[in-house]
């Protein structure tokens, strides 16, 4: 078989395109956060990770503009060599303080943060233990490491203990979980995970990509939400969501961060975050500190929408957060539901296997602190109309 044979035989996406329900790579001609414009038509956006609505915040925009004027558009080098600015160091110091850790290190993307951190720490003879619903970047970081990956059933503490019991007590062990799971919107039960990690001498890393800005006081994340910051060894976060920018960070004890800084290939061999992205993060962090009403509004919107969907007869799984899955089941029904909502003026994200288990396809909806009551009322009305029309409810 030739290398490209699989490319020419891949027809699934084109079949969906031919059906007129292909939902991916749709170009947006304009976006102000809660609404987007596609082919001249406005849709309410409930598929974004812009949780606090900061992509259009005047302070965040202005900070990025001023950074471009001062530093230009790129650092043109890696953090390791010529690509570290004082802005990077300032952001790291402020992030460490914000999440309650000694030190932090920023990467160019959240994906690279997980790849670099896990592959640097988990060496030959070590074990990395993941929840089966952890993000793909965590799984890929495990694959790039020289250690062995073990997995446990989603949020199943009995299964986590079963896995930990099998481990050699002398092996290094890293347990990695999402704080908020990106598809289901449920929260990792840290009060149950932490005691197991301590019992079996494992370190704990929490991926707070969807939690920072959402959970905890001023959006400080999952560990703060449970009052367990000192019990979590590593806190990871991304800037492409609540921070309205691009990049990622890892925070923990200074010696651990120092080691990662000198061993994470995705940091050492990638160009650093542009100044505009760093400045936007710093401004977003300031907004998080000074405008605590944003995460409160966000959670209130999520509660309203979750109740509304459930009252109509939709299943929202185990969601506790602004990520609310609408469980559909089959792939075709999910695409048809997505298309009908799209045509009605609502932008959602259809999720099918392998991102979810077979026959567990869903519409991933997510909410923004700046959504209006009128927008949310319209979304609920259209979900009821479309759901009945398609036969989902």
The helix count comes to: 15
Major beta sheet summary = 7 strands, mixed
Main-sheet strand order equals 4-10-9-8-7-5-6
Radius of gyration: 21 Å
What overall geometry do the principal axes of the alpha carbons give? Answer: globular
What is the percentage of strand-forming residues? 15-25%
Outline the low-pLDDT stretches.
none
- For the record, the CATH class of the largest domain is Alpha Beta
- End-to-end separation in angstroms reads 46 Å
Domain count: the total is 2
> How does the helix and strand content classify structurally?
alpha/beta
Which CATH architecture of the largest domain would you pick? 3-Layer(aba) Sandwich
Topology-level CATH name of the largest domain? Aspartate Aminotransferase, domain 2
Beta strands, count: 14
Element string (H = helix, E = strand): HHEEEHHEHEHEHEHEHEEHHHHEHEEEH
Molecular structure report:
- The longest helix is centred in the last third of the chain and has 20 residues, at about 295-310.
- This protein has 15 helices and 14 strands.
- Helix 3 (about 60-70) runs antiparallel to helix 12 (about 275-290) and helix 7 runs parallel beside helix 8 (about 190-200).
- Strands 4-10-9-8-7-5-6 form a seven-stranded mixed beta sheet, with helices on both faces. It has a four-stranded mixed beta sheet with strand order 1-2-3-12.
- It is an alpha/beta fold and about 400 residues long.
- The protein has two domains: about 5-50 and about 290-390, Aspartate Aminotransferase, domain 1; about 55-290, Type I PLP-dependent aspartate aminotransferase-like (Major domain) (Aspartate Aminotransferase, domain 2).
- The mean pLDDT is about 95.
């Amino acid at each position: 078989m030739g290398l490209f044979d699989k490319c020419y035989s891949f027809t699934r996406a084109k079949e969906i395109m031919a059906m007129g329900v292909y939902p991916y790579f749709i170009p947006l001609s304009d976006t102000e956060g809660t609404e987007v414009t596609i082919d001249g038509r406005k849709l309410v956006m409930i598929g974004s990770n812009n949780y606090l609505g900061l992509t259009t915040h005047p302070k965040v925009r202005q900070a990025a503009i001023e950074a471009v004027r001062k530093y230009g558009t790129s650092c043109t080098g890696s953090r390791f060599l010529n690509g570290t600015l004082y802005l990077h160091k300032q952001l790291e110091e402020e992030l460490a303080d914000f999440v309650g850790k000694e030190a932090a290190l920023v990467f160019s993307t959240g994906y690279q943060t997980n790849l670099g951190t896990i592959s640097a720490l988990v060496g030959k003879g070590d074990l990395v233990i993941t929840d089966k619903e952890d993000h793909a970047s965590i799984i890929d970081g495990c694959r790039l490491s020289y250690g062995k990956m073990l997995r446990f059933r989603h949020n199943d503490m009995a299964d986590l203990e079963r896995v930990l019991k099998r481990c050699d007590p002398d092996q290094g062990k890293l347990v990695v979980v999402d704080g908020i799971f990106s598809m289901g919107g449920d929260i990792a039960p840290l009060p149950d995970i932490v005691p197991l990690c301590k019992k079996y001498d494992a370190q704990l890393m929490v991926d707070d990509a969807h939690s920072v800005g959402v959970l905890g006081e001023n959006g400080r994340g999952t560990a703060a939400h449970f009052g367990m910051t000192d019990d979590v060894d590593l806190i990871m976060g991304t800037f492409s969501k609540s921070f309205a920018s691009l990049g990622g960070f890892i925070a923990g004890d200074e010696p651990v961060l120092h080691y990662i800084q000198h061993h994470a290939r995705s940091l050492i061999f990638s160009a650093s975050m542009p100044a505009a992205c760093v400045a936007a993060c710093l401004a977003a962090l300031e907004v998080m500190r000074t405008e605590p009403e944003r995460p409160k509004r966000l959670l209130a919107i999520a509660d309203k929408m979750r109740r509304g969907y459930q009252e109509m007869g939709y299943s929202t799984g185990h969601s506790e957060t602004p990520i609310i899955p609408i469980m559909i089941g089959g792939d075709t029904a999910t695409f048809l539901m997505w298309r009908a909502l799209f045509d009605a003026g609502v932008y959602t994200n259809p999720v099918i296997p392998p991102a979810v288990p077979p026959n567990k396809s869903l519409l991933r909806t997510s909410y923004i602190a700046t959504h209006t009551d009128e927008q949310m009322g319209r979304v609920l009305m259209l979900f009821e109309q479309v759901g009945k029309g398609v036969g989902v409810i």
